[in-house]
Amino acid sequence: MTRKQRRAAFIVLGLAILGIAVALVLNAMRDSIVFFYSPSDIAEKAIGPGERLRLGGLVQPGSVVKDGSTDVIFTITDFGDSIRVHYSGILPDLFREGQGVVAEGELRPDGSFRADSVLAKHDENYMPPEVAEALKKRGDWQGEEGSGRPHAEKYGEGAYP
Amino acid sequence: MIAETGHFALVLALAVALVQMILPAYGAWKGDHAMMRVGTPAALAQLALVAIAFLALTLAFVVSDFSVALVANNSAVDKPLIFKISGVWGNHEGSMVLWVLILALYGALVALFGRNLPDRLKANVLAVQGSVGVAFLLFILATSDPFLRLDPAPFEGAGLNPILQDRALAFHPPWLYAGYVGFSMTFSFAIAALMEGRVDAAWARWVRPWALAAWLALTIGIAMGSWWAYYTLGWGGFWFWDPVENASLMPWLAGTALLHSAIVAEKRGALKSWTILLAILAFSLSLVGTFLVRSGVLTSVHAFAVSPARGVFVLAILGVFVGGSLTLYAWRAPMLKTGGLFAPISREGALLFNNLLLTASAAAVFIGTLYPLLLDAVGGPKITVGPPFFNTTFVPLWAPLLVMVPFGPMMSWKRGDIVAAGQRLIFAAGAAFVVCLVLYGVVSDGPWLAPIGMGVAVWLVIGALSEIAWRVKLFTAPAGESWRRARGLPRAAWGTMLAHGGLGIAVAGIVGVTAWKSERIVALPEGGTTSISGYELTLEKVGTRGGPNYDATTGVVRVERGGEFVTFLLPERRRYPTERQEKTEPAIYTTGFSDLYVVLGEGNRAGEWALRAYVNPLAPFIWLGGMVMALGGLVSLTDRRLRVGAPQRARTKGRSAAAPAE
Predict the structure, then answer these.
(1) Which residues in chain B have their CB less than 8 angstroms from residue A11's CB?
(2) What is the mean pLDDT of chain B?
(3) Which residues of A touch B572 (CB under 8 A)?
(4) Which residues of A touch B305 (CB under 8 A)?
(5) pLDDT-derived band of residue B245, with 50, 70 and 90 as boundaries?
């Protein structure tokens, strides 16, 4: 092999790997991105059942129903609209009524939400940033900027280590 | 007084770092040896001053001096001593002081052990190292003063986040930082080489131990972090593709590539400017990691505080160092002479292939981590890029990489013979094939790719052993001959074997947990029984107990297998009154080959307790593999070629004399 051929071989190899990487990233971008919505967004944008999404808001006080097993039903609200959420499993440690929560899953045809994971925050002062923003957009934000202790934060299930 | 001493020491350290940045570089430029020599005492003084500041802060935590705001916000009197100490870096300000301490430590090590470095190179390296110190000391003093006083001082502090009160986690940040900051060393060498416009084999030889040291610390740091996440977060996962984890994975990938390309630069004089670029990238990604974690753009346990000033400051540091170094690279790299030729099928070719795949996978992680942030910054929709994205990009890029790993060391330099390499690996291939087939026959559940994954793991481990066996002519030469050869093998060869074998062990663990994990969630009354993967679990009772700084609801779970008693597991839910937080504490029973993992949930009105159980096959292998990899790095580091001592000095002297000075 001449010097030129060798160089060409390496360039082809490099471009091939780059091409494969780009194709993989684009493909994954199309299939595996999850959007975040508040209950009002879902009502406005008429999002259909079956699409995977994250739903965020506050757990409506008095809405949590636990039947005998590990099934839980609760309502996520942003004070504009609210959505019933069905979840089966152990709730995160700091799942509380009136607190911010993010559920991941999909809408069901009857308009309720089937969550397969629920993230809640480990600090009573905390609200997930997406939730805070969604509430701010609706003008229902009561907290002040940067309120609460400058403390480490943690999601429960699906925690961010 | 303590706090003021610490603060004063930090200010002095900044002054010394400025001297260390300017004088040696100016001296190197002008050829003034007296000025160049300032670098060494400056680096040592910087270490001493930062160490004083760090000790002062530690002392404030140990004696619970709540007049220091940081201590009041992050510590409490009743906290066990070890967590008072780890609390020093369990917060933003303190962790930055640790960052700078490790940075100064690396600088001082070069100053002390770099006696055999050419004066100009050493002066430039220390100057670049000093500039990084200046940036981060300024950052601390301007935006994150750890010694701020609080008046009046509270009687009790706010405590440390309970999930950070953990023994393994106490030492995760120091290791991780030793890795991150370690790449500042290779970065300094790369910039110094660009400033001089010269890269030779001796340069690559000096860079390699630093790359190895940083890589090995980062490997340990990542493995510890993942282990911690596994046993504290209570849902049995070991890696979540969380942006903060990705922040540590990216420099690891670039550092792994650097480690391999530095071998080519050292042995063959090829890929020099690529090696320089990787050194710049590895440190840039460390800085990106610091930015992601410290700026508050991410919500996670690592984002200690959300302060826009800090984010902007770290972004500015990032811009100056990454932008500056890449500009310097674009300007100076074309001046570097290209090195030896090699065929595509050769050791160099294999290492290049490794580099391409590693950097491509680092790029994929980079895009997945930063794209949502960018989209958000420009006002786009809020999106989450979760595990599916990374699984579909990372795994296909790593699969060919893993298959190629055993071939690399079997190939000869310059022109390799892939058929001969394959023949030497025939046993490894056979073993992998057999394992694969047996698993298809025996295991009916799990994804169809899983047995292939296990085959790859076996291929890696046996492949790594095969290389040593081939080198010492095991079974083809008399035993005495093999023994003699084994003793003569360089430590680096053993290091390679351990690192590649450890990778295989980790792959086995990852495949095992991912493919064959079983999970069971039930609500049990006291005395209730459930079963999972052959284990019978009985929730005998649920009681309360008091810990040093928490109260716990503890479940007593009796574990049996086939009617035989195995063990009692005590999963807990802890309440920390000082911190006003709760924490789940899983209980794990391990056989070494699989883990039984039990989490206690909440009770319901019917008097039942939610109980979640996992069986994670091969889970311990993940961290065992990581530790074996790190051990490989350590063994390589003790190779006599890299040892900073007398034998090397004679050799490098000869080399630098042979190389032209300019």
Answers:
(1) none
(2) 87
(3) none
(4) 150
(5) confident
Q: Rounded to a whole number, what is the distance in Å from the CA of B235 to chain A's nearest CA?
A: 7
Q: A71 CA to chain B: closest CA distance, Å? A: 10
Q: Which of B365, B88, B360, B358 is nearest to B245 (CA)?
A: B365
Q: Tell me how close the Cα of A110 comes to any Cα of chain B, in angstroms.
A: 25
Q: Do B240 and A158 touch (CB under 8 A)?
A: yes
In a domain, B95, yes or no: yes
Task: Tell me whether 0.90 is exceeded by the ipTM.
Answer: no
pLDDT tens digits, A84-106: 999 987 777 667 787 778 888 88
CB count within 10 Å of CB B207 equals 25
Number of neighbouring beta carbons within 10 Å of residue B292: 24
Mean pLDDT (whole number) for B272-289: 93
B628 vs B656: CA distance, rounded Å: 35
Residues B140, B207, single domain; the answer is no
Q: Are B119 and B111 in contact (CB under 8 A)?
A: no
| A–B CB contacts, 8 A cutoff, strictly below | 177
CATH code for the domain of B90: 1.20.120
Cβ distance A21 to B307 less than 8 Å, yes or no, reads no
Question: Does the pLDDT value for residue B11 go beyond 90?
Answer: yes
pLDDT > 70 fraction of chain B, expressed in percent and rounded:
94
Token readout for B280 is: 């710049």
Considering only CB atoms, A25 lies closest to which of B242, B343, B367, namely B367
Both A22 and A72 in one domain: the answer is no
